[in-house]
Amino acid sequence: MSELPTQSSPSGPGNPKDGDQYREYYIPVKNIEEEQELLDEYETDKFAHALREIYTDFYLLIELMRGYAENNDDDDFTYFLLAQKLQKPLDRLSLACSASVDWELICKRTIGVTT
Where is this chain compositionally biased, Polar residues type (predicted)? Predict the structure, then answer.
């Protein structure tokens, strides 16, 4: 009888792999408030889910704009309405980026396996 292949466990807090690190950062309260605002707006508890929803908003709007372009519709008012609709997800994306990019990433402590 042949041996069953062994499956390796995914790395994580209890099973670090070579190169994994545990880090502790200071994040200003303003960024935490902005993050919570996004989580509340998209009714999720995961930041990645909120970003996915923002992406979806943009994707759908782009597809709508492409549909208008295929019909050679040059009505300025239509494009004005599309731009107005595009503004909200653009503002949300700006807030999402601010919540992650503007963190003051000062590593206070590193624990774990390093190479």
Answer: 1-12
